[in-house]
Amino acid sequence: MDQNQQPQQQLPNGMMPMNGEQVTPNTIPQNRNISLSLVIHRLVEQSYNSLLGLTEGLPKANDLERKKAIVDYLDSTREKFLRLMVLIKWSEHVPTLTKANNIIDILNLEDSYLREAADLLINTQFSLVNARAPIYDVPTAIDVLTTGTYQRMPTNIKRVIPPPPLKPNQIESALDRLNDIIKYKLFISDVPKEFQPITVSDGKAHIVVEDEYEAYLTIDGGSEKSNWVILSLNLFVYSKRNLNGEGPIKVAYDNKMKYVLDRVQNRITSSAQPLFELHNIIHYLCISSQMDILASQVENLKKTILKNNIRCVFGKDQSITVFYWLPEDFNLVGVTQHTLGNLMPNKHTNFKIYIDEHQKIKISHYPPITHPKNENYFKIASLNLETILLQAIELNAYDKVYLLNSLLLDNRITANTTQTTSPTMNRNSGKPNLLSTKQSNNLLSRSFHLNDIKLIMSSRFSDENQNDSNGNNDHLPTVLRVMLYGSKFLDITVNFQNGKFSLIKSSNYIEFTSHLEQRLNKDPNEIESIVNVFKLKSLLTCFEEASLFLGLECFNKIPLLVNSSNSESNQLANELFSESNFICVSISLPKENNPYYLVISIKATCFTPSFHLLFCKMIPKSTIMTLDSIIKLESDQLNKLLKECPIGSISSSNNTNSNGNGPFQSYISTLLEKIVEASNQKINLLSIQSFLKKENINYYQPPQQDIENNNSSNSNNYNNSNGNNKNNGITTTTTTTTTTTTTTTTTTTSIIFLFNEQQIQKISPFLSNHISHQTPITISFKNGLYTLSFTQQRPFEYKKYSGSDSGNNSYEENNLNENYTYRKGSWIFKYTQTSDWFSSFCNDLMAISKITNISSQLLKQMETLEIYKQLITHFTIKPMSIEFICFVGSNQTRTNVTIFVERKTGEIKLSFQPYSNPLLVYLEKDINQSPTNDITNSLRAIINSNDISVYINSLISPLELTFYLPLEILVIPRSISQVRLLYKNLYGIDIKLISHEYCAISDSFYSLNSSKQVRLTSINQLHSFMEQRVSLQALDNPTGHRTSWLLPIKQFQKTVSRIFIYLNSLNTLKFAQNQMKPNFQPLVPSNPSSQRFSNDYFIASFSIRDYTSFDIEVTNKNAENTVPSNEELALFCQYFKKKVQQLNYRSQTIGSCIQMLTLPPKILWEFIRVLLEITGPKFDGYTVEISLNTSSIHSKNKESFIHIADENQVYFILRYLNSSRTDIIPPDQFTDIPIIYNYTEKSIRYWNKLDSNATSSALPKKSLSIVEEIKQKFVEEVAKLIPEALNASSGKSSPISIFFKSFLPKIKPIFSNPTASTLLLLQQQQQQQQQQQQQQQQQQQLENNNNFASPSSSIR
Fold it and tell me: Using CA atoms, how far apart are residues 841 and 794, in angstroms rounded to an integer?
């Protein structure tokens, strides 16, 4: 489309146009066309934005407006697109119109060139008129250049030349004379007392009046009778906030200073006392100006934060009265700037600035207040009304806070009745002149009283800065800091805006209430009661924080229903919950349904806490509880702890430790921890009583004794010592609730119970040897542990044996990892609070009795059989276990045997170290099934199987790689004296224990115990192998077969290892035979060591020499066939021998070899050449090989090399390695490329191994991963290059060789990033190809368009 733009005018030969811009002569007209796509894009974007705006605005409109807006939008959009359609149809003629416009522009440009040239010629004509040279002064130039001077100067110029200046000594002499005259004149004149010492210098007298003005005077003659002359006058009339004296006020007076100087000069000239006249006039001017400045600042006060609480009134005597701290509800009727209205100067707080009879500005305040250090606190020198107001507020606030401080100190002195000397208060010093904090602490009793008060005042009221009342511009409020409990404090200050007291707390845990401020503002004498409220809250907060630190829940209210009966419990509960001076700490215990609460109440008189334990019961189907009983926790030691609290001084409260808690808070935590511990102890003891009563177990409570007596009796009676444990000296007083009365009983910290005969037999039949129905058992609870103790009736002597030494060493159990201790017949058991202590205790008793029974049997066996003393060493009997070392053969077969009891099930368990015994299950079963836990048979089996178990473990977990894999062997115990070893679930060997020196081994196929469902395979020629290789003669088994051998245990490991090597060779040959059957025919009957097969092309022989070395031989069936040659077949066999000997994936390697032998000779020859080519060298840093092993989840594709003769295709994997090692390959150092090679078509394509039908002729149906898709694309790209490469090599190279070499450049991106980056690279390559194709098409279209438009190019 064309735009109506004016073409830029240009002038020929680079001339400048009228506007000064240079125009080049060859300016080409700009393209004035707009792209049609841009028009369409803008129209669509405009329509879309209009639609978005319509959707945002329509929901707010009604139905009619929405319909109208939609119709308007559609009409306007339709009109725009109709215009666009017309424009699109008209755009077909744009090229022709564009050419015509270009021609017109060129003609207009040439016309403008001619017009501009004519205009410039005319302008040049006019400008040459003034381009004429001036008339030069030739005579003057000749004189100056020749003579160097100008001789034509006028003679009258000497009249205006000034006289020569005075010399410095003349000036100094004149000034000294003038100074002397001025000093004499001052000496004989009267000088006002307001003048500061006058200094005379440089012929001037310097007069200064502080905070008013300064002036410089001199005289108009040379004698003392000369008149004074004012040289300069400077008024100090400005606010001190403008330190340089440069402000709007000073500027206003500077404009009138000349007029003032003239008037003052006239007055002092005609006056008899000129200096007094000077001072009177200027002093009156300064006073008036200062009052005017203060009056002008009234409006500025209305802009401050105090604007709602102040009023300013101007008096007729030029005074200014400022009322502040006015109440918010005060009625300001009739109050203006010149009338007081309801304001009363003798009632409301105010200060007044006025001029006294001595013509000085003064400030008065109501109520009268004085500064404690500076009487002249209010000074007018600053000339800042806001500063004066802040000074008055600060001083008034200090006076009010100081009053509270005096009230608190007076009350404290009155409360301290032991103080005989009445302290005095120094009002001027601002601090109480009484005893120090440390002295007052000594006078007060050590209780929960807190008496720390500190007055934090501004620097203006302190002793350190007495002279800095006006130097510091910061106005800080005075704060009365009252120290609370737990490093907390309460700050009391005065609000600068309204003059009311403000209470500022230091912790969010202290509840802040506004009514306390109201009480304090109404009556300051309430300060003590208000402080006590905060002290009470802070102390409760300390207990609350301590409970949170201990992990306990804390409540201010609990849903407790207290009956209205007159019982003592209900009355006590009503007293506790009547006021808000308590908190409730929830104590949750495991296996307890009813809640318990510890109520901490504070006495408001002495701030001493009391502790009560509440026993509650839940109402069914409700969250409300009822009160069962209340226990008050108190003792002498508790009172002593309360008196030893570290409070009473500011230093102790502020002394915080590393975790932010002071000594007092740490003490509260310790105190609460002890109280909770006592509560837990009491609750658990009551729970124990309830449980024993439920189980019908007799119990009683021992009489209460002193703690010291209990500690001293521990050595005499161990049973009683465990029942009466020390509990920090805190005893509990139980208050039991009944219907009418309440009884108070004192309980102890332990309970004693006794089992009867039936209960003892129920626990264990062997327990009667340890306890009887008369054995007292003491139980107590402390530190979260149940402690049970008793003394054994007939103590069993636990001993240690060392070898065959009959000497016994006494044994004492002190294992910290166990829950019990034993010493000289005394037992102590400890159980956690979360466990079932009674069941655990019964299980421990059962374990002790069973271990004692087994120990007796072992001791009897060792005394009866002498051989056991030699085979069993380091025999140790412990209360809960038995340990000994079984030593049959060498030191390598030493086994640590442990016999213990599983406490949860009560079964006897065995443990063998360092190797497990395969007969473990049957050994434990034999002992546990015996009513008396007889271990005779099990002990014999342990000794007989000791060496064999060590040898079997060495077979299944060898230290080095063997010819058979450890995972191929399975150990199955059959009985207490028999075990079976399975190899790959095909062959089995039964091992029967005869003695500790001999065992019998046999083929499991002939075993009488073999299962009918799972039949094993008989071991072929096993008897021959045993006779030839092991030199053992076969014995008859119970079925009549000679498949059993008697074997010394010393030869067991070597013999069984040879048998498994033999089984491995049988399994390998059997696998090869199964692989040969589909494509080969056996030539001779197979034997256990070799097999021979043949097909149409080759004769293959597989054999295993010495049952360990795999051997393969392949020859051509037709001797005339030389492709491949026998030498190449020998290299082929050597390659596979090496691969099989690596023992990894041996079966897959043999299967791949057999699959290769099914190939036609020429195709096999190609693969042999590839194997020879890739063996050894590296290609671009990579090692290439044909993978003979792979892992696949599909059983059909588990082989890595497959030949399908019907399809003439070979499925195999090319592996590229980035590591030099081929035996151990890291997973990130290689990549596999599975391919399908059609040897008739000489084509290669990708092989999807994830598809179970991948070996069929159909294409893979299963979707590929990203990496596999990349590999597939790379394979397709490289496969396209194979035909051309084959033609270039004239058939000398095979397609496989060409493929793996051409695929090397594709390996690098796969190794760099095998996921997203490679796929992105492929996408970028495809996009680049598409862009190149599009550019080529566009270039062809442009060439066609240029050829079409070439006839019109001559028009230009």
Answer: 19
Return the pLDDT at 444.
31
In angstroms, the first-to-last Cα distance of the chain is: 21
Distance set, CA 364 to CA 238, 344, 367, 460, 1165 (Å): 22, 15, 9, 19, 125
Q: For residue 733, what pLDDT is reported?
A: 35
Task: Give residue for tokens 């109050």.
Answer: 335
Chain-centre distance for alpha carbon 1046: 68
Helices (H), 1016-1160: 1022-1025, 1052-1076, 1126-1141, 1146-1157
> What single DSSP character describes residue 1239?
T
Q: What is the DSSP string of 452-465?
A: -EEEE--GGGSSTT
Kindly report which listed range (301-310, 1023-1032, 1255-1264) carries the lowest average pLDDT score. 1255-1264
Q: Is pLDDT of 183 > 80? A: yes
The DSSP call for residue 1029 is: I
Tokens linked to 1119: 């001797």
Q: Which of 823, 842, 826 is nearest to 722 (CA)?
A: 826
Cβ partners under 8 Å of residue 222, min gap 6: 177, 178, 181
For tokens 């003979």, what's the residue?
1188
Q: Cite the DSSP H helix spans in 550-696.
A: 568-576, 636-643, 650-654, 663-694
For residue 141, the SS3 value is helix
Cβ pair 835, 788 in contact under 8 A = no
Burial 1300-1332 (b: 16+ CB within 10 A, else e): bbbbeebbebbeeebeeebbeebeeeeeeeeee
Written as six digits, the tokens of 291 are 């009052």
Q: Which of 106, 129, 117 has the alpha carbon at shortest distance from 18? A: 117
- Neighbouring CB atoms inside 10 A of 1112's CB total 20
* Most confident residue range from 434-438, 516-520, 1038-1042: 516-520
Classify burial at 684, counting beta carbons within 10 Å of its beta carbon; exposed 0-12, middle 13-18, buried 19 or more.
buried
Average pLDDT over residues 564-574: 67
Distances from the Cα of 1177 to the Cα of 53, 563, 1184, 1222, 1306, angstroms = 72, 99, 9, 13, 19
Instruction: Name which of 962, 906, 917, 979 is nearest 942 in CA terms.
Output: 917
Give the DSSP H/E element, type plus range, for residue 955. Answer: helix 946-956
3-state secondary structure 732-766: EEEEEECCCCEEEEECCCEEEEECCHHHHHHHCCC
Identify which of 992, 971, 990 has the alpha carbon closest to the alpha carbon of residue 915.
Answer: 971
Mean pLDDT rounded to a whole number for the chain: 75
Q: What are phi and psi of 512, to 5 degrees?
A: -105, 125
User: Does residue 109 surpass a pLDDT of 90?
Assistant: yes
Which residues pair with residue 1246 across a beta bridge?
A: 1235
Please name which of 607, 650, 665, 668 lies closest in space to residue 446, comparing C-alpha atoms.
Answer: 607
DSSP-assigned states of every residue in 798-810: -EEEETTEEEEEE
* Closest residue by Cα to residue 917 from 956, 953, 873: 953
Identify whether the C-beta of residue 631 lies closer than 8 Å to the C-beta of residue 734. Answer: yes
Q: How confident is the model at residue 595 (pLDDT cuts 50, 70, 90)?
A: confident
**CA–CA distance, 907 with 899 (Å, rounded to integer):** 11
Question: Any idea what DSSP says for residue 28?
Answer: P
Residue 431 token pair: 């601090």
* Better-scored residue on pLDDT, 425 or 578: 578
C-alpha angle 749/755/756, rounded to 5°? 150
Angle at 1070 between CA 1067 and CA 1073, to 5 degrees: 155
- What's the chain's Rg over C-alpha atoms? 58
Residue 175 or residue 410, greater confidence: 175
Q: Residue 1053's pLDDT band (boundaries 50, 70, 90)?
A: confident
